[in-house]
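Standup notes
- DV: blocked on the single-chain target, sequence here:
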Amino acid sequence: LHQNILHRNKLARTSPVSPECEECMRCRAINSEILRREIMIAFPSTPVPKKDELVYDNTGYHLECAAIKRFLKDKPWPTVTVRSLCHDYKGEFCAMHHFLTTTALRYYLPSLLTAILDDFEASGPLPERILWLFTVDKSCHREDFARMNQLIGSLKDAQIGVLRKFFRFAVERSDGDLANDAKKACRTLARLRPCPKHPRVEGADLEQ
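- DV (later): unblocked, structure below
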């Protein structure tokens, strides 16, 4: 049994990332270190968005957008860590994603995911804010849905795969409203980017 576990862990470390759904991951706990490595593999660090592609307001008069632009300018996403977000960014980092363009959000999404994995407590309300990005319900504004749909549509299959694993990780490691939001996010991906292996069963185990 011990050898079988070691063999499975070795395969998890060396196998390419695939767009797995909840059925693929059923009965298999998600390791945060392995998930972090898969995020690093799935999201390339280049090219870095240009400074005028970072925020939706480049006039210099919007204080939050100006602060984000100064902070993210020429920064590869792996260098944006939970420590730099907490200590170097002058604004409220948990609200940063609201002011990013879709291009910048797609690029820096792995920064936010790994920040949560590295220090869940220090990330504050960031987990629920990220899950909210991918949650579609009756209260969702049309603009928010359009942005989410555009973001999900722009991600590659491997990136969708690690995003599913991150949501599943959030379901396993949290409870209450946060776990419910993670389940909603899983179902959102099931609708918008269904797993080709299990298009009809994806998310079924999350209804329980």
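- Follow-up: Residues 1-18, 201-208 have pLDDT under 50 and may be disordered.
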